[in-house]
Structure formats: C-alpha cells, structure tokens
Amino acid sequence: MYENWLVGVDIGGTTIKMAFISQKGGIIRKWEIPTNKNEKGKHIPSDIAKSINLHLYELGKSKDKLIGIGIGAPGPVNVLEGTIEVAVNLGWENFPLRDILQQETFLPVVVENDANLAAIGEMWKGAGNGAKNLICITLGTGVGGGIIVNGKLVHGENGAGGEIGHITSKLKDGLLCNCGKKGCLETIASATGIVSLALEELAYAEESSKLKKYYNKYQIVTSKQIFDAVKAADKTAIRIIDQVTFHLGFALANLANSLNPQKIVIGGGVSNAGDTLLIPLKEQFAQFAFPRVSEGVELVIATLGNDAGVIGGAWLVKEVLMNKSKGNLVSV
Ligand code: ZN
Predict the structure, then answer these.
(1) For residue 278, how far is its CA from the centre of ligand 1 (angstroms)?
(2) CA–CA separation, 13 vs 27, rounded Å?
(3) Class of the CATH-defined domain 5-113
(4) To which H or E segment does residue 15 belong?
(5) Distance 311 CA to ligand 1 centre (A)
(6) How far is the CA of 159 from the centre of ligand 1 (A)?
C-alpha cells in the first residue's frame, strides 16, 4: 500500500489517456483529457502536468508518490533524445516532449512511439502474456505496429522500426497511403481500408446482398457492419474480408518468417471482430509461414483495448527509469 506509482500517458489525436499504475501493472486510476491541438500542440505538456496534479490532489497524494512518466505519441520518436520527429496530427515537428514534460512535472519522463507502447503493454499485461518475441499490430483508423525481439523494442536506425502498416501489400492499383506510397497494408487492413475495399466490391455485388441493400439505402458502411455481414454469411462481405485476411496474413507471415515470434497480437478497433477476423487470418497466415515458424507462434486478439498504451508507459517507467537500464532504449 506504501508503494509508489508509475504514470502512463498515451497521446492520441482527440484524447490523451492517462493512468496511475502500480508496479505490478494494476490500474489505480485512469482518465482522459481532450487533446488541445491549438498553437501547434504547444499546450499539451502543460495540460498533462496540470491533470496529473489534479488527480493526485483528488486522491489526497503528493507528487512524491509518483516515480516517473512513460508517454507515447504518434509518429517517429527519437527515444534517446525524447523528441517527436513529426506528429502531423498534433502539429509537432522535432518536439522536445521529454524535456518540456520534465520541466512541467518535475518528474523523469521516457518517450516512445504510441504503437510501440501498446505492444509493450500487451507484452506485459495483455495477450502477449510475457512473450519476449512478439509482433503487435493495431488495426484502427490506420495500422500501427510494434516489434519486440528478446524483450526489447525494435526502433531501427531512425525510429521507424515496426511500421508494419507500410509494408507494400498491393503491387498493382494500390490506393494512396498517408505516407505517400501506394498499396500499403494500411490502405487494406485498417478500418478505413476495409471500407474502401467494400466500396469497390459493392459496385459489383449481387443485388441480393444484404450489405449492398444496406449501402444502397444509407450510402454508408462501416468495418463493423462488414464483419457482422460475414457472420450472416453475406457473400460480398466474405469476399471483402477474404481480401483483408489474405493481405494481412501474407504480411504477418513474412514478418514472422524473419522474426520467429512467439505471439502475434492483433489489436485496434477492427480486432473487435474477434474470431470472424482471427479464424480466416490464421488460415491465410499458415499458408505463407515457414512451417517451423508456424509451429512456434500463436495469433491472438489483444486484451487490453484502450489501456494498452498507458500500461506500456508504466512498464517503460519501471524498466527504463527505475532500472536506469538505458539498454532498453537502444535498438536491437
Ligand atoms: Zn504507407
């Protein structure tokens, strides 16, 4: 009960998720605040600092109850400098997040990419179940990824390690991705990508398709409705999800062929489809994976949901700040 707490913070485009977390990874209090993107996001660190103070006050605790802050932000991160290279959503460019937040809070801060943070969270307390070799892919509005090898995140040479969403998946007629390339996995397997595929398929779909009837009536369709239609055996919906799982299975199998992971964790809003996504994905994965790689790996749905980032942040405080083991920050 006298144990000090870790702080996890996960900055997103619309909200900032925050939590006080025990050293065993239990959430003591969690909350969120809106992301203030005014004036190129310069108020974000002070908003975080004020919010931490407010919640400490409400709990009747003082700042010395906290050990440090592990924080994730979108975009490539320079983990040694604690800077965010570019976060278009927030208006940040070469933003010295670690230094500013340390000044605002008087606490030590460690900075990481948000998808990497979610991967660590799932490794520690989620579906990764402590696996030291793990690939985590987040299928949301975009596709994020985090790769852990021998318990360490792969950052790569300049912070772009684990960008699974930008594996080129469609070689011909691929859609333009936010990164400037065409045919990235993100343009197929994100919620947005699935809807784009659906719009193409619906143009040719048989009139008996319930999905087509729905679309004709409302002129809108979501990835959740497409998965629901798969459950109802709608042929058009099945064709759409077959394409998604084909490209996703192909990309993940080739990654696994290089990394030989123990777990592949599938998270993000699209993963709420559960077995409707996982069962066909496992079949596609199996046909492209090297047999010994297939034997060693388990594909699982993420279990922490929106808490993955803050729990990953807490792990960073524990492993990096408390142990002062800077080695964890260095690319493998
Ligand atoms: Zn891309």
Answers:
(1) 23
(2) 23
(3) alpha beta
(4) strand 15-21
(5) 27
(6) 15
- Cα(6) to centroid of ligand 1, in Å? 34
Q: How far is the CA of 186 from the centre of ligand 1 (A)?
A: 6
Compute, in degrees rounded to 10, the torsion defined by CA atoms 270, 177, 205, 250. Answer: -60
Q: Within 10 A of 230 (CB to CB), how many other CB atoms are there?
A: 22
Q: Which residues of the chain have pLDDT under 70?
A: 1, 324-332
Please tell me the distance between residue 170's alpha carbon and the centre of ligand 1 in angstroms: 11
Token pair of 112, please? 């990481």
Structure tokens at 320: 């990096």
pLDDT tens-digit map of 44-61: 999 999 999 999 999 999
Distance (Å, whole) CA 224 – CA 146: 24
Distance 56 CA to ligand 1 centre (A): 40
| CA 167 to centroid of ligand 1, rounded, Å | 7
Kindly give the distance from the C-alpha atom of residue 324 to the centroid of ligand 1, in angstroms, as a whole number: 35
Q: What value does the mean pLDDT of the chain take? A: 93
Alpha helix positions (H), the chain: 38-41, 44-58, 97-105, 114-125, 186-189, 191-204, 210-218, 223-231, 235-259, 275-288, 291-296, 308-316
Q: Cα of 179 to ligand 1 centre, how many Å?
A: 4
The fold adopted by the segment(s) 127-303 is Nucleotidyltransferase; domain 5 (3.30.420)
Q: Where are the domains of the chain?
A: 5-113, 127-303
For the whole model, what pTM was predicted? 0.91
Backbone angles phi, psi at 113, to 5 degrees: -70, 145
Asked whether the domain spanning 127-303 has the same topology as the one spanning 5-113, the reply is yes
